[in-house]
Specification:
Blueprint lengths: L2 H33 L2 H6 L15 E4 L9 E7 L3 H16 L5 E7 L2 H8 L6 E6 L3 H5 L7 E5 L5 E6 L3 H12 L11
Parallel strand pairs: 2-3, 3-4
Antiparallel strand pairs: 1-4, 2-5, 5-6
């Protein structure tokens, strides 16, 4: 065997080890997102569970009736996101079904005119805030749409859902309505 063989054989194993390590990292991140482990939900998108959320900023496109001290589900969406457009009927049904228990707020990234168009198919129970610059999404650490964050009546994150559908939002609302946190567990 020549030196060329052994050199190429060594390089091949270095490449295999690098690719293997990369696959392990990628699969770990993917599993955290899909399995929704507590560590994964807190580490990936959105503010960590148990922390107080920042204020929602942006242009108010439509405000539903609000009551101070109620839990809310904040959905982050974008006008450029096709799944977000398809989820609008489910969000409207969810907001109508849960209107007495919690508030539903959609923070939509994109130009205000397009956000108004986006809000057109959302029911009257849904508050819509336009985030034209994406600053609000960034301050909430949301870099994936659609994404839902459950906030209790104290403004503390109690749950998160990536790509939320009606059933996921209903489970999130149960956590919030059941008192998913009290003042003694509030983290500032």
């Amino acid at each position: 065997m020549t030196w060329l063989f052994w050199t190429s054989y060594g390089i091949l194993w270095v490449v295999v080890l690098i690719l293997g390590a990369g696959m392990i990292v990628m699969l770990r991140e993917h599993a955290d997102l899909l399995l929704g482990s507590h560590e994964g939900r807190s580490r990936l998108h959105g503010p960590p569970e148990g922390t107080t959320v920042p204020r929602l900023k942006g242009e108010e496109v439509r405000l539903a009736a609000t009551t101070p001290g109620r839990p809310r589900v904040v959905l982050f969406m974008a006008v450029t996101c096709d799944p977000c457009w398809r989820r609008r009927p489910q969000i409207s049904h969810f907001a109508a079904d849960q209107a007495e228990a919690l508030e539903t707020v959609v923070c939509c990234s994109g130009p205000v005119e397009r956000v108004r168009e986006f809000a057109g198919e959302l029911g009257p129970e849904v508050s819509v805030i336009a985030d034209p610059t994406g600053d609000t999404s960034a301050s909430w650490r949301v870099f994936l749409t659609p994404f839902a964050i459950g906030v209790d009546r104290y403004g503390v994150v109690r749950g998160k859902v990536a790509n939320p559908a009606y059933d996921n939002l209903t489970l999130l609302s149960r956590v919030l309505v059941a008192g998913g946190g009290n003042e003694s567990t509030r983290v500032e």
